Amino acid sequence: MNQLISLLVENEAGALMRVAGVLTSRGYNIESLTVAKTLDPTLSSMTIVADVAEESRVLLIKQITRLVNVVKAVDLTESNAVQRELALIKISSVKPEMRSSVAKEAEIFRARIVDVAPTHYTLEVTGSPEKIDALIDLLHHYGDVEMTRSGSMAMARMPANRLPYPMFRAEPSAEESQTTPVVESK
Amino acid sequence: MALMNGARILIESLAREGAEVVFGYPGGVTIPVYDVLYDHNLRHILVRHEENAAFAAQGFARATGKVGVCMATSGPGATNLTTGLVDALMDSIPIVAITGQVPQSLIGRDAFQEADTFGITRAATKHNYLVKNIEDLSQVIHEAFYIAGSGRPGPVLVDITKDVLLAKTNFHMSDKLKPLRGYELKLDPDQAEVDEAVDFLWEAERPCIYAGGGIISAAAHEEVVKLSELLGAPLVHTVMGHGCMPPEHPNYVSMLGMHGGYAANMCISRCDSIIGVGVRFDDRVTGRLDRFAPEARVLHIDIDPVEINKNRRADVGVVGDAKRALAAINKRLEETQAQKSTENMKARTAWHGKVMDWQAEHPYSYEPSDVEIKPQYLMETINKFSKGEAIVTVDVGQHQMWAAQYIKFNSPRLWQSSSGLGSMGFGIPSGMGAKVACPDKLVFSISGDGGFMMSLPEVATVVGNNIPLKMIIMNNGWLGMVRQWQDLFFDKRYSEVDMQPGFPDIPMLAASFGIKGVTVRKPADLEAAIQEMIDEPGPFLLNVMVTREENVYPMVPAGGALDEMILGSQKPVATGD
Ligand SMILES: Cc1cc2nc3c(=O)[nH]c(=O)nc-3n(C[C@H](O)[C@H](O)[C@H](O)COP(=O)(O)OP(=O)(O)OC[C@H]3O[C@@H](n4cnc5c(N)ncnc54)[C@H](O)[C@@H]3O)c2cc1C
Ligand SMILES: Cc1ncc(C[n+]2csc(CCOP(=O)(O)OP(=O)(O)O)c2C)c(N)n1
Fold it and tell me: How many Å lie between the alpha carbon of B267 and the closest alpha carbon of chain A?
């Protein structure tokens, strides 16, 4: 099952390699990984989606947290975190009579048409990964689809400094892990 | 403030960290460093292979608890180090490795002797650095020592580009550490966890203390003995835990695991409460995990939160330094002793008796001989001379396990074994490092005839630096441990394990190095040979020809349950009570 992990890491060479290394050396496939700067220029945020068995998820968070330059790791899989993705979708070979339908579908999904040509459209859409999957499925009916996706970005709903699960505990209590994300903060 | 180049800043920074000795091997990129060492009072020992520089640094670190230091050049020098780094990582040993890197202008262009050391050693270290700015160098060295030696110890590598070694700057020595936001230590246990642990302990009717390397690195040996006494609990330990309790202690059982003692394995298999301290529930200890100690609840104390629930679920987890955690737990036990200790006392006393009965029924045993030197007899005899006080380093294989079974250690940091990685070639270089660290101690290294050939180059280092290491070869003419598995699990098809015991001729080999070497074949000659070795002021090579086909027992076959030990070649599988 996919695990959704949000990280705060020192913005320095090698940070990505170390985090990716923890996952790959355990044989987990990374579905998506995004890195970007934060308000504090010395820190980067990362969002990782990886295929991790449920029973290994806490262990993985701890192993990532153990890295010297990881400041915080949060498991958002079972939280109600905001999760968004951006996709650019190009749909070509659209039959003339279908063009208006494509524009309609785009509207329903609140996608923006960012480029138009006689035979194709380019759409920009943001949303949950499921929504983007749904739009792509639909567009296949209208022509040939190419796309590029950003991978997930996620954010917990409460401020980071108010996330529960205190430092270094061996394991969150049962109630904690049911209601809130697993956090290892240092 | 003084104008200095990077090479000098490096050496001055190592000196500031209190480094006493660097084990290393030079090369093109690190020549500037060696130029500084030429007339610096920081001691450098020139090894004969970089892997052994890392092993020797570990030998120093394991003997003292201080951070060991090794150094290598770029490319092949750095790649040669990596086995020693992974070894230190697996056994949680603090070392700092310095490597040279090609100049920044050449990085990424397949320059001569360029290797991606930073990338290659990512998974071989606790942390690593690539230094590209001379202004960072001293701070990075400071961080490297701090990270290597604190928390769960481990190896840290600092890769320094040649242009940094040659650049000059006005250097001001500082020992302030920049805060490391991602690396904060949790040394003191939470009181709530301590209270839970204390309740757990008083509830135990059949407790078993399972002690490991974390006791040694925390210097928590007195605390663990005290815990054992407060509860009347038997103590078993891992290969890494040797020396955590004097073997004469009435609660001491023995090593547990694949080649552990019968009583130790029965004790942990039948107990109702495991008290794991500084251990990682390794598969060589647990055997088949789903059948490991099925009736036991688990209290697990470790400084690394990753270890809690990693292999075996802990009913109570305590994250913290073993010394502090045990001190807090002991204090609470003493406070509550008056009302609590009587509750399960009777059950605990009976249990203690039962474990000691197992111990008396099935001590380590072997068929003695007065014709051949039995490997176990060799270890018993070494034990007679070491008296629990000498440092013993071992290589990997059958001799390692017999040494672990038969040689006793009264205090921590006397026993050194490459345990997690099991790297052959470890024994002599680590012994070298230990002897350099503790010149007043008697230091034996014990190798198999296979592993001896892997660390043969370091005999030159031992001789060249006059390190009076007592090197013992347990010579069975095989890659013994592999042969044992072929014997037991592959129909005795002894494929590629014959080491042809006829050569090299050890006394001649020793003579060619300018030291004394002796070969013994008869049990009657063994004691005199060991005495001669000890009396010799310098290094010594003792080649002991032992029974060729002898297997290490007890043995838990890989994948078997811990209480399904094979006790000896004729005896059937034991299934317990
Ligand atoms: C041929 C061969 C056979 C072997 N057979 C056996 C066998 O029969 N029995 C056996 O036991 N082993 C055996 N081993 C070794 C085995 O593979 C493991 O290396 C060993 O069991 C691990 O020991 P440990 O659990 O004490 O952990 P270590 O590797 O010593 O780890 C130390 C633990 O303590 C923690 N720690 C470190 N510092 C502190 C601190 N300050 N406070 C608290 N915790 C701390 C660490 O986080 C870690 O979890 C064998 C090895 C070989 C090569
Ligand atoms: C570098 C390395 N290569 C291979 C092994 C696998 N191995 C484990 S024990 C062993 C045999 C060791 O033989 P020897 O050194 O003669 O010691 P003995 O078992 O006979 O005591 C081997 C090959 C290893 N542990 N390390």
Answer: 26
The CATH class that applies to domain B191-361 reads: alpha beta
Cα dist from B31 to B34, B35, B107, B146, B335, whole Å: 5, 6, 18, 26, 61
Q: What is the pLDDT of residues B323-361, one digit of tens each?
A: 999 999 999 999 998 888 777 999 999 999 999 999 999
Q: Whose CA is nearest to atom 47 of ligand 1?
A: B304
For the ranges A40-44, B432-436, B497-501, the maximum mean pLDDT occurs at B432-436
Q: What is the pLDDT of residues B447-472, one digit of tens each?
A: 999 999 999 999 999 999 999 999 99
Q: Are residues A63 and A10 in the same domain?
A: yes
CB B280 near ligand 1, within 6 Å: yes
ipTM of the complex: 0.91
In this prediction, residues B275-303 reach a mean pLDDT of: 97
The enclosing domain of A29 has a CATH number of 3.30.70.260
- The alpha helices in A142-186, defined as continuous H runs, are 174-179
Domain span at A119: 82-149
Q: Which residues of A touch B (CB under 8 A)?
A: 9-10, 13-14, 17-18, 21, 25, 58-59, 62-63, 65-71, 167-171, 184, 186
Mean pLDDT of the region B532-560: 96
Which residues of chain A are within 8 Å of residue B180 when distances are taken between CB atoms?
A: 68
For the entire predicted model, the pTM comes to 0.95
Supply the CATH classification number for the domain B375-552.
Answer: 3.40.50.970
Distance from Cα B63 to the centre of ligand 2, integer Å: 24
Active-site option among B104, B113, B310, B536: B113
Using CA atoms, how far apart are residues A112 and A119, in angstroms rounded to an integer? 17
